[in-house]
Design brief:
This protein is of the alpha+beta class. Among the domains are: 65 residues; 91 residues, Immunoglobulin-like. 28% of the residues lie in helices and 34% in strands. It is built from four helices and twelve strands; from the N terminus they run ααααββββββββββββ. The strands form two sheets. Strands 1, 3, 6, 9, 10, 11 and 12 form a seven-stranded antiparallel sheet that branches. Strands 2, 4, 5, 7 and 8 form a five-stranded antiparallel sheet that branches.
Length: 227
């Protein structure tokens, strides 16, 4: 009959759940430790057929297999702990960034009351007639910044927060777009904006996430610069 053994020791090692008993992890109750393995090996030697004893190489192979399995399990546990420590260390380092500004790949910026915003433009070659259009949440252009010609590379820019009429723009999110003439053709250049870090989140598939004021979360690995 299935599940029945003639060996009392082996039967005694089977996990038996008492009625009414609760276990947090049944798999842990059925795990064989190194001591259990050697007890099973000893029992196997005692029960072997004297006319067909276990060969030395078979015994060594069994011991080696168990040792390798135990080593792999231990290595996996240490790796998990290492990954957890790395995440905790990243979170601790990221927490020091709260209140500071970071440069991130986005075309939006949060304008704080009485302040301005800044960013960075990149061009693969010399660009002429570089212009930055700034739009509010409704899509209306509130101001255009004329930067003239720009050599290959990156260039920082700043908007003081005023509109075309010279009035202070209300606080909130604004969208930026950069147009320039590159190689005789009009192109839109990539840009990055500075944003203020409000808090730090950990866990999940994204790992350490910086929560930016008005812009939501961004992965720590996407940050280009810390001000």
């Amino acid at each position: 009959m299935e599940g029945v053994s003639n060996n009392s020791y082996i039967d005694g090692m089977k996990w038996k759940k008492d009625e009414g008993a609760e276990y947090a992890d049944p798999d842990e109750q059925q795990k064989l430790e190194q001591e259990d393995f050697f007890k099973l090996l000893t029992e196997q030697l005692n029960m072997q057929d004297p006319s067909k004893p276990v060969e030395n190489d078979q015994m060594i192979a069994q011991m080696t297999s168990f040792t390798m399995a135990e080593g792999i399990t231990g290595l996996s546990e240490r790796f998990d702990q290492f990954a957890e420590d790395m995440t905790s260390n990243q979170a601790l380092q990221a927490s020091t960034m709260v209140g500071r500004k970071v440069l991130v790949p986005t075309d939006q910026a949060n304008l704080e009351e009485g302040a301005g915003v800044s960013g960075m433009i990149a061009t693969p070659q010399t660009a002429q007639n570089v212009k930055i259009n700034i739009k509010d949440s409704s899509g209306a252009v509130v101001k255009t910044l004329n930067l003239g010609d720009m050599p290959e590379g990156t260039k920082e820019f700043e908007w003081d927060g005023t509109t075309t009429t010279g009035e202070q723009a209300p606080a909130g999110n604004y969208t930026f777009s950069v147009n320039a003439t590159v190689g005789g053709q009009t192109e839109e250049l990539p840009l990055q904006m500075h944003a203020r870090v409000q808090s730090v989140s950990t866990g999940g598939e994204r790992g350490v996430v910086l929560n930016l004021k008005g812009l939501g979360g961004i992965k720590l690995s996407d940050v280009s610069e810390i001000s």
